[in-house]
């Protein structure tokens, strides 16, 4: 009955991370006051998501960071693929499921942990970071499909594959997943860190092994 499975990245496909932006802000020691002010402006509706992101990206650019600095931060944070992530992706694919990533994460996270994500996932909505030939961070193409807009990305992906929202599954862990979880035919709160997400989700999985989702999606696993 389900034909498409959408994944969040930070805290869902990737473990030991709540929000990738925070990991890098902390690693690059950006100005906490400026960072907090921009975040508050966004939540107060005074700036858009992309203005908030541009502000934060600007702080990384002014630090002159390189791909190596991003990698060091990820190493230090001991981020890793979620247990069972690869097996889950393969099992869903071999059962003919379309797969999508709808995330506010930044591309370096997946470049580092799942470099063939563009082949594994039919659709990927996330923020792309760019580096020059010396590895210096130069710019970002920030996704507009984070927070409430994640739900819009789900609608776009469903439409592209000619599917109803009732045929789409979403798996996520945090507050930015609430709106998209409300829209998906099956929403799974995986290792959830947010009470509202727990309230709106159809299924809650507390055990941090992604294979736990399979029995809810594939009839043969039930
Ligand atoms: Mg997340």
How do the strands and helices of this protein lay out in sequence?
Layout: E1 4-7, E2 14-15, H1 20-27, H2 32-43, H3 49-62, H4 67-76, E3 80-81, H5 85-94, E4 98-106, H6 107-113, H7 117-120, E5 123-131, E6 137-141, H8 150-160, E7 168-172, H9 178-183, E8 186-190, H10 195-200, E9 203-205, H11 214-217
Parallel strand pairs: 1-4, 1-7, 4-5, 7-8, 8-9
Antiparallel strand pairs: 2-3, 5-6
Helix pairs in contact: 2-3
Bound molecules: magnesium ion (MG).
Magnesium ion binds at residues 8, 10-12, 172-174.
Question: What does this 3D model show about the protein?
Answer:
By secondary structure, the chain is of the alpha/beta class. It has two domains: 4-16 and 80-221, 3-Layer(aba) Sandwich (Rossmann fold); 20-76, no CATH class. It is 41% helix and 20% strand. The strands form two sheets. The protein has a seven-stranded mixed β-sheet with strand order 6-5-4-1-7-8-9, sandwiched between helices. Strands 2-3 form a two-stranded antiparallel sheet. α2 packs antiparallel against α3 (49-62). The two termini are 13 Å apart. The mean pLDDT is 96. The site of magnesium ion has 7 residues, from loops.
Descriptive labels:
222 residues; alpha/beta; Rossmann fold; seven-stranded mixed β-sheet; two-stranded antiparallel sheet; 11 helices; 9 strands; 41% helix; globular; binds magnesium ion
